[in-house]
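dumping this here before i forget
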Amino acid sequence: MIEKLRLFLAVLEEGSLRRAADRLRISQSAITRQIQLLEHDLGGRVLERTSAGVRPTSGGHAFAAKAKILLADYDSVMAEARRLVCGESDRLRIGYIASAVQEYLGPALALLRRTYPKLKIQMFDQTPGEMLTALRRGEIDLALTFCGAEVLSRDFYARKLASIPSLVTLPIDHPLASRKQISISELKNESFVGAPDGDVPGFNQKIIQFCRKFGKFRPRFVSIGKPTSLAEGLAMAGNDEAVSLQPIYISHLRIPNIVMVPIADTEATWDLFLVWQRGKASGPLRALLDAMTSRQGS
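structure:
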């Protein structure tokens, strides 16, 4: 139907079947057949012959106006689809963990903005669970996440960016709060903050692995409600005298009545991943991936 519309509009612009055929480099009989098929589909005439050539009927004139709008929309959609399929875009949408963004994403983004000054970069502060959903829906192009990568990598590309040591958050009056390092085995009798799997996929399982491997015990989890941020959640945990194992990059957070102490077990690490959609990556996305990877490798 799209090609029939193009032929019809070309005939109107030229005012002649012959001139339209010459312009489109097809036979006049081929144009005539397509116009007849179009009129059959519409159930009425759209062209009438005159001594000077052809002109639209009253219905054909109204139809031409609609056809121009339809073709413009079609061409716009197809152009955008081609850019996306070929990995070309004028925007980059990134989901990130707020605690890690400055150290791991900030320098690479500064370089990207200098390389692509017209690029629109959209940033989304999301939980790992929200990133998983957004990637599946095509709402973001890249995720910087430390949980859920194992699930995401089944459907998306995932690249390990870094292994992050652990720390433990404690109430300020906790007996271990003044220590410079703490072994996970010393936390055997503590209550640990858990996280809904929908918000932070794999988080609880990671804590269980740490405690079993380095402390030879199974952690006891407590619920702290639904905090609006990590900082609020850790503050709530402290009020309930609960502890939390976290990647050490959260150490810049300043949370009232909470202290953060590095974990002595050096192998208790969190893997930070870049995760992105399968298919051809855009130039800006490739540049950002390369910048982040090379920086961590240097």
